[in-house]
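Quiz preparation item.
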């Protein structure tokens, strides 16, 4: 979780939690019967969490939840009788986890790649957080954290190649090559791309109905009603404002395009075993 991406992740979490009232940051695992609404999204996210928890094999006792978000997954695993330690470098996430779980867990506020465990874990869980760890450090950090024969459970999306719009996530082939070189063997892989695509449909709806109109309204208001402030902003922050405009008007709708996502990205769950 590099600092810049970590901050972006933290703001996204606040948007999901405080604006939309969602308890997870990750995609949803949709069924055909789920309505394409926020309530449907909540059900899909719960199904995602349930599916991921079900991939933890028998015999696992100690879990490191890397990129723990609100702590909802840690709470689910605690209820299943596991010993869980959540991790995130973000102050806001620590506050949410402590409010939810209190003294039930030991929270690690740091980056995964910097972590030096006191005791090994049976499983490291990374739900849409592996992309925040540089690839040349990801599997070395997992090796340090795991007991012999320990498991690394990753659920995330991956690029098929270097491309423009999904640069935050790892490219799949180098990711797999790095895992093998570090001594990890794939025990199980599941491709859930088709089941997560409705998340993008819902995101596109909110972008078109709410996000873009609010952006245009704010820009029009400052241009017409706050001319002096608008002039100062353009002269002091012109490049940043232009970058923001390109992101909102070009990059964001492209990233929410389900057909582009299907073509250029694959969403997978990998369970690795440290050989």
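Solution:
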């Amino acid at each position: 979780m590099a600092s810049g991406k970590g901050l972006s992740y933290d703001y996204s979490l606040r948007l999901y939690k405080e604006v939309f009232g969602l308890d997870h940051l990750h995609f949803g695992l949709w069924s055909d019967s789920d309505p394409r609404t926020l309530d449907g999204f909540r059900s899909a996210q719960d199904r995602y969490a349930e599916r991921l928890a079900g991939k933890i094999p028998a015999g696992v006792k100690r879990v490191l939840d890397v990129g723990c978000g609100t702590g909802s997954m840690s709470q689910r695993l605690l209820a299943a009788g596991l010993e869980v330690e959540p991790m995130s470098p973000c102050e806001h996430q620590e506050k949410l986890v402590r409010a939810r779980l209190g003294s039930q867990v030991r929270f690690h506020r740091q980056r995964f790649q910097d972590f030096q465990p006191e005791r090994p874990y049976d499983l490291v869980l990374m739900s849409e957080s592996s992309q925040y760890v540089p690839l040349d450090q990801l599997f070395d950090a997992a090796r340090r954290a795991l007991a012999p024969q320990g498991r690394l459970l990753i659920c995330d999306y991956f690029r098929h190649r270097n491309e423009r719009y999904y640069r935050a996530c790892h490219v799949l082939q180098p990711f797999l090559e790095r895992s093998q070189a570090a001594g990890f063997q794939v025990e199980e892989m599941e491709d859930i791309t088709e089941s997560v695509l409705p998340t993008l449909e819902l995101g596109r709806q909110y972008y078109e109905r709410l996000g873009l109109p609010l952006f245009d309204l704010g820009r029009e208001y400052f241009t017409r009603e706050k001319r002096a402030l608008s002039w100062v902003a353009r002269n002091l922050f012109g490049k940043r404002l232009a970058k923001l405009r390109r992101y909102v008007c070009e990059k964001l709708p492209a990233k929410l395009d389900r057909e582009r996502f299907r073509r250029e990205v694959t969403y997978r769950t990998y369970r690795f075993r440290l050989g």
